[in-house]
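# nightly structure sweep
# worker-07 picked up a monomer target from the shared queue
# config: single-sequence mode, recycle default, output format = structure tokens
# input follows
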Amino acid sequence: MTEYENLSLYLSAISAFIALWAIVVSRRTAEEQRRIAQRMQELEERNLAATHYGKYSTLLYAVRSDVKASKDRLSDAAWQSMTRLHDLFDSLSNDQSVRPTRHIFDELCESIYRGFAPHLTQQSGSVLASRFAAMKYVEEQLDTLRNHRAEIQKRADHEVLDLRRIYKKDPDARLERLVLESARFQGGLLTLCDRFTEENRDKLLQAALRPVLEFVAVHDEERPKLVAAQQRLEQGLGKNELEEFQLRESQVLYAEYKREMAGIETLETLSLSEAKNLDGVRIKFVVGQLLYFGSLLYAMQMCNDWHIDA
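# output follows
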């Protein structure tokens, strides 16, 4: 092969290599441009979504700010009513032992509240109201509990009831039932009931109505504000159903939005208005009725912490 032919072959190989490299570079450039375009589109969509969701986060913040004033007032009114109930339990108790009766009543109310706490911003107010109402009948099995007092005391000495762990394992668990079945609650209930004669129970109920009704009066004043706040959130959610960016696609914001709606509905529903119908009325389960009122008042005084206790 002549020198000319070698040179020609060499140049041809170089030309082929350059052409191949140009194709590779062209493909890489096209791929990079495609990625940049895709990224820019994603950023644009995220910016549009952020702008769109922003109005709902603004709405949620505004409603929370408005409801905060109602929560503060309800919490304070519930605390004042609960304090007066404590005084009544001590003054009408027939047992002035070392442990005040108010402490037993307060612990029972708190334990009931703990059983409901995880659901106060998760379930509807009507469902929660029905579940709370069942507390009025905790005395139905009182005779059976008295027959097993020693066994209950023995169980209470070793009992551990971890409601948070149970809730994490089963979010739908009816925790209040576990509370009512616990030895500590049953023992406390027995002690509380033993400290009141039948006559004093009637006096206790009638005397308790005044502080309870004072809370009801405050709730009646705040309820229209809660209804209005709930409607604002519902209208926002209804409007979003007609829009391109669905709020449920933003999981965190949607969860907070729904949690706030549930919490407001619960605040609106748990009114204790039943007390209006008990003036001068004798009922069978006085202690249960007062535990029902007390647990609701306890929940209301803790309303600013519902999201923490959940």
